[in-house]
């Protein structure tokens, strides 16, 4: 249906959605993850000198 309405091939429409996932969704998901990690670190006890995150595992940032 989108292919007919836009004049694109089905493959082009499919590629648009694949690219949109990387271009739009991935940065949004990463930002949400980063905000959650900041909240976890903000509420974690610092008096024990722990640098570990949730469940005692060190966080790796990409």
UniProtKB/TrEMBL annotation:
<keyword id="KW-0238">DNA-binding</keyword>
<dbReference type="InterPro" id="IPR050224">
    <property type="entry name" value="TALE_homeobox"/>
</dbReference>
<protein>
    <recommendedName>
        <fullName>Homeobox domain-containing protein</fullName>
    </recommendedName>
</protein>
<feature type="region of interest" description="Disordered">
    <location>
        <begin position="37"/>
        <end position="62"/>
    </location>
</feature>
<dbReference type="GO" id="GO:0005634">
    <property type="term" value="C:nucleus"/>
</dbReference>
<keyword id="KW-0539">Nucleus</keyword>
<dbReference type="GO" id="GO:0006355">
    <property type="term" value="P:regulation of DNA-templated transcription"/>
</dbReference>
<feature type="domain" description="Homeobox">
    <location>
        <begin position="1"/>
        <end position="27"/>
    </location>
</feature>
<dbReference type="Pfam" id="PF05920">
    <property type="entry name" value="Homeobox_KN"/>
</dbReference>
<feature type="DNA-binding region" description="Homeobox">
    <location>
        <begin position="3"/>
        <end position="28"/>
    </location>
</feature>
<dbReference type="GO" id="GO:0003677">
    <property type="term" value="F:DNA binding"/>
</dbReference>
<keyword id="KW-0371">Homeobox</keyword>
<dbReference type="InterPro" id="IPR008422">
    <property type="entry name" value="KN_HD"/>
</dbReference>
<dbReference type="InterPro" id="IPR001356">
    <property type="entry name" value="HD"/>
</dbReference>
<dbReference type="InterPro" id="IPR009057">
    <property type="entry name" value="Homeodomain-like_sf"/>
</dbReference>
């Amino acid at each position: 249906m989108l292919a007919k309405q836009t004049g694109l091939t089905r493959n082009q429409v499919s590629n648009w959605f694949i690219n949109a996932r990387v271009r739009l969704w991935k940065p949004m998901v990463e930002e949400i993850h980063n905000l959650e990690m900041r909240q976890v670190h903000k509420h974690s006890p610092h008096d024990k000198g722990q640098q570990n995150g949730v469940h005692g595992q060190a966080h790796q940032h990409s």
